[in-house]
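Sequence, please.
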């Protein structure tokens, strides 16, 4: 697990998320480019974090004024990337080095889920790339 330095805004958003949901947060990533905040929580807290009918997410979206995304945390890069692309059905994740020695992840998804994995305007794959670089020094993700 890399040492991640949180910004003041990320710390404030974590405090707010925890006070609204009563769920501990592993990490918070602010994605200003796509106007969203991504929270990473342990698997046993996903349902509680979202709340019945998404009530907690709606409340946080109203307070913060950005889209709120909750991702299941994992220390294994393959599992974490699979979680980051949910609900797309991931068949496999292969982490390798390219010709320049950079670490890349090749993620195979069900053919009909490819659009879902990439997301509108690439937002889902962008989320996976943010998490991959922050946690695992993975420089790119390819969905063939």
């Amino acid at each position: 697990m890399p040492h991640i330095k949180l910004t003041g805004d990320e710390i404030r958003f974590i405090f707010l998320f925890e006070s609204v949901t009563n769920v501990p947060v592993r990490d918070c990533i602010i994605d200003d480019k796509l106007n969203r905040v991504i929270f990473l929580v342990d698997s046993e807290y996903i349902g509680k974090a979202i709340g019945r009918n998404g009530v907690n997410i709606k409340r946080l979206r109203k307070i913060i004024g950005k889209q709120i995304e909750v991702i299941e945390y994992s220390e294994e890069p393959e599992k974490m990337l699979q979680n980051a692309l949910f609900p797309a059905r991931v068949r496999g994740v292969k982490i390798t080095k390219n010709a320049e020695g950079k670490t890349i992840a090749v993620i195979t998804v069900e053919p009909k889920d490819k659009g879902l994995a990439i997301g509108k305007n690439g937002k889902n794959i962008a989320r996976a790339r943010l998490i991959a670089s922050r946690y695992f020094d993975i420089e790119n993700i390819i969905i063939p």
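The chain has a mean pLDDT of 94.
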